[in-house]
Hints:
Blueprint: E1 2-3, E2 25-29, H1 31-45, E3 52-56, H2 66-78, H3 80-92, H4 108-116, H5 121-129, E4 133-139, H6 147-154, E5 159-163
Parallel strand pairs: 1-2, 2-3, 3-4, 4-5
Helix pairs in contact: 2-3, 2-4
Amino acid sequence: MFFSGFSLLDEKDIFKEYIEETEFTISGFSYGAIKALKYVLEAIENSKRIDKIQLFSPAYFNDKSKKFKRLQLLYFQKNNQQYIDNFIQNTIYPNNININKYIKNGTYKQLDELLNFIWDKDDLETITKHNIKIEVYLGAKDKIIDSKEAKDFFQQFAEVYYIKDVGHSLN
């Protein structure tokens, strides 16, 4: 099962060189990584089998101020199309891949959830205690998140792949 990123739909082809498609592997890109985490935590509560969760450029904004997050939401409210266009350009940087066929305009509510979601150590520890492997893939040239901050956080719980010369979309 794959969860899509903010303003995207069914873009899992972009990650074909990394993604493990099995019945018991859950994956998500950026905003979709949040959804994937929530799905796995719910699966644990319901005693469903999950072997692995793959997080591609998880939307990690734990290090950003409330002011930064409010400004992002304000810019979105002022001109959501311009915000999404800029967001997509930053997502595909530094390689100008064509993701037009995956674009689906995101909502204010989704952006708010993406920006204000807190990656909690307890949640990740719960996953690892249930013998679920966590893999995190980050691009060193990411213009959406601070991938170094995300790497430092996630390496406590996950196998982290820090890929040089790629950005948020890992291409």
